[in-house]
Design brief:
This protein is 14% helix and 33% strand. It is of the alpha+beta class. Pfam families: U-box.
Length: 448
């Protein structure tokens, strides 16, 4: 019984055994095999024999294989893909002969397609590996760069604020205005150039002094000053400092009567030490004292004693001249029928012998004299201590005087013009600590 031959296109190998490509113009040679016309013609021209049987072949004997051409057409273009083959090598070696002598019609092999898939996977895997390696290298560089950044440790960042209790002084020529300020003692352990930068929401102004700061003479010992070299209206002081020397950093404001918080950053912080020497105003204590001519009268006592007498320490006293204040005739004036100048008498004592500076701030033009032990308002030239007033044409006094520890002195604060009232403050600095206390306005005398 004859076996029925199937005609399904997927059951036939529709590729040329020489080119391994799908047939386009199939022909049958004398050896009974089907080839692509162009491929077998080239083979016969070069070899003259069958690639399978080695029997002689003639190009003229090639006959078209219409059946194979029809089968190729039925499969369609989807089966027409093939590998790009180097035909010079294909024609050099003959294809492997089949086991039997029949026409080589075999099942279609998908090995070349699986090879394509494998090649694609390999390429995709290689690309992924390369991407991972590049990403790892970039991350490593970023981490290494961050690790190489110097880590700021032990950075002394001083923070404080200017408040209503902060001391005030006259940063420039003052009439009515006053400037709040803070004082820091600065030492360094290594010589070099340092940078001090402020951070605040107020417009700050900075000064650096050598050894000490005198609010009564803010230009004395001044090394450097700055207003807006930093960002956002902040000062930035750049200065060369020497080890184990004492410097004073003064923080104030560009505009008078401004208060607010601030902080100070410094370069090379491990070589810099900060120490605050600011003495804020202390609350006043009220006591009652009875005299022969007056009933109970209140007096104010203000003593500013810092923990140390480091250079740059200062002491403040604040009060006001009112209609209840006593009046007298200033020693340098010729009063007519009445006493025309309001005044307040302050007792002063110091802890060390030396030179002291007293400077006033207030809403009025002030004037002052210093007396030894007693003051008589009817004899203002008696017991007067000679002092140097650097106020010149300014409206606040600036007294320089030598004082002895253990002695008692009286400072009389009055006005430059008659019948003037208002608030005032006195700031003192010098060799030691200074104590202020208000005295009764009649019968002024100090007994040791």
């Amino acid at each position: 019984m004859q076996e029925r031959v199937t005609t399904r296109t997927e059951d036939y190998d529709l590729t040329c055994p020489i080119t391994l490509r799908t047939f386009r113009d199939p022909v049958i040679a004398a050896d009974g095999r089907t080839y692509e016309r162009e491929a077998i013609a080239r083979w016969i021209a070069e070899h003259g024999t069958s690639p399978f049987t080695r029997q002689p072949l003639n190009i003229k004997d090639l006959q078209p294989n219409y059946h194979m051409r029809n089968m190729t057409g039925r499969r369609g273009s989807s089966a027409s893909s093939y590998y790009a083959v180097d035909e010079s090598k294909v024609y050099q070696y003959p294809p492997t002969a089949p086991v039997y002598g029949e026409v080589p019609i075999t099942k279609v092999s998908n090995n070349h397609r699986s090879g394509q898939c494998c090649s694609f996977r390999c390429q995709l895997g290689t690309i992924l590996i390369v991407i991972i390696l590049i990403t790892s290298i970039i991350c490593g560089l970023i981490i290494g760069f961050n690790l190489r950044k110097p880590v700021s440790t032990n950075k002394p960042k001083y923070s404080s604020s200017l408040t209503a209790n902060s001391p005030t002084y006259c940063r420039t020529t003052c009439i009515r205005w006053q400037f709040y300020y803070d004082v820091l003692t600065v030492t360094v352990t290594k010589a070099g150039k340092y940078k001090f930068t402020s951070e605040s929401n107020i417009d700050t102004y900075g000064y650096i002094y050598n050894s000490s700061f005198n609010p009564a003479n803010p230009h004395l010992n001044l090394l450097a000053e700055d207003n807006d070299s930093g960002k956002k209206r902040q000062f930035q002081l750049k200065i060369n400092l020497q080890p184990w020397e004492t410097y004073v950093l003064v923080i104030t404001t560009f505009i008078p009567n401004v208060r607010g918080s601030f902080s100070i950053d410094v370069s090379d912080p491990k070589f810099v030490n900060f120490h605050s020497t600011t003495t804020h105003r202390t609350p006043t204590k009220t006591t009652k004292r009875t005299t022969k001519k007056t009933t109970a009268r209140t007096t104010k006592k203000t003593t500013a004693r810092p923990s140390t007498t480091a250079p740059g320490s200062y002491y403040n006293y604040s009060s006001s001249l009112t209609s209840s204040s006593s009046k007298y005739c200033r020693r340098d004036k010729k009063c007519q029928e009445s006493l025309d100048f309001y005044y307040e008498a302050l007792q002063i004592s110091v802890s060390m012998n030396g030179r002291y500076h007293f400077v006033s701030n207030g809403s009025m033009a002030t004037y002052a004299d210093i007396y030894n032990k007693t003051f008589d308002k009817l004899k203002p030239n008696q017991n007067l201590i000679h002092s140097i007033d650097d106020s010149s044409e300014e409206n606040q006094f600036k007294l320089k005087v030598s004082l002895i520890a253990g002695n008692k002195y009286i400072m009389v604060v009055t006005t430059k013009r008659s019948n003037i009232m208002g608030k005032f403050s006195v700031t003192a600095t010098g060799s030691g600590s200074v104590t202020f206390s208000s005295l009764p306005q009649s019968g002024i005398e100090i007994r040791n």
